[in-house]
Amino acid sequence: MLENPRSPRVRAVAKLTKRSARTETGLFLLEGPQAVREALAYRPEGIVELFATPTGWEKHPDLRSASTAHGIKVEYVTEYVLNAMADTVTPQGVIAVVRQAPTSARDIFAASPRLIAICEEVRDPGNLGTIIRAADAAGADAVILTGRTVDPHNPKVVRATTGSLFHLPVSVGGDLEDVVERAHAAGVTVLAADVKGDDLLQARADGVLAQPTAWLFGNEARGLEESALTLADHVLKLPIFGRAESLNLATAASVCLYESAFTQRAADGR
Question: Which of 14, 92, 149, 197 could disulfide-pair with 237, CB 3.0 to 4.6 Å?
């Protein structure tokens, strides 16, 4: 059992809360039983280390069975050690160190996607994590991050995805112009979400949403730059029927992705 919260091994895990350490090692931190459960189910080969308190591990027999089935040994730690490793104030008894699994935009578009989310300069970890989760729930094929969008392996982003990070490809570090060019070459229509755009409901009635689509979402405060808007095939806005000034980015992105998912499935007879 690991008992010293200041040991080099514990410090190495704790450093993964920093982007520099994640970039250097190609690893990231996974906290909590639900996140570990999804990693064991969808990417067990990526789990490098698995840590748990005896009490925390005892609470989750399914995790014990899954880790045993994949030959992954758990390392027991004290509560003090787990607290030293974790990014959260009250960790839930289980932590894993996982390899990053980068995907290229080229490979994403080579797979003939029907629905993609592109995040340009999205800076809030909670927003990005929620968009990844919404894209997964809507059946999107991938999420592509461009510009200075927050690192998807940031602990706050990982927690906000609630495991969806392991369900669909996420491409990091792309140039927006290059990504849009690849989308067009693959026959994918690029729709920019922006308050200055045309009505989304009219676009749906015109059949725009039934096409293979990449939704483009911008920065929380500034939205999309004019140069980004000009790259899109259509600029669309969600109608506001009540008196709200606007919608949170992640909420708006969720609605846009589901609108496309509904329309595409109806067109496919599903």
Answer: 197
Decide if 253 contacts 133 (C-beta within 8 A). Answer: no
Helices (H), 43-154: 54-58, 61-69, 79-85, 105-110, 125-137
All structural domains of the chain: 8-99 (3.30.1330.30), 105-267 (3.40.1280.10)
Q: Which two tokens stand for residue 253?
A: 């992105």
CA-to-CA distance for 184 and 172, rounded, in angstroms? 19
pLDDT digits (tens, 9 = 90+) for 18-66: 999 999 999 999 999 999 999 999 999 999 999 999 999 999 999 999 9
Nearest to 50 by CA among 68, 72, 18: 72
What is the secondary structure of 26-60 as a DSSP string? SEEEEESHHHHHHHHHH-GGGEEEEEE-HHHHHT-
CB 35 within 8 A of CB 162: yes
**Rounded to 5 degrees, what are φ and ψ at 242?**
-100, -150
Say what the pLDDT of residue 20 is: 97
Going by the DSSP 8-state scheme, the letter that residue 2 receives in this structure is: B
Residue ranges in the chain assigned as alpha helix (H): 8-14, 19-25, 33-42, 54-58, 61-69, 79-85, 105-110, 125-137, 155-161, 176-185, 200-205, 226-229, 249-267
- Please give the C-alpha separations between residue 110 and each of 88, 107, 172, in angstroms, as whole numbers: 38, 5, 16
Contact partners, residue 258, CB within 8 Å, separation at least 6: 134, 138
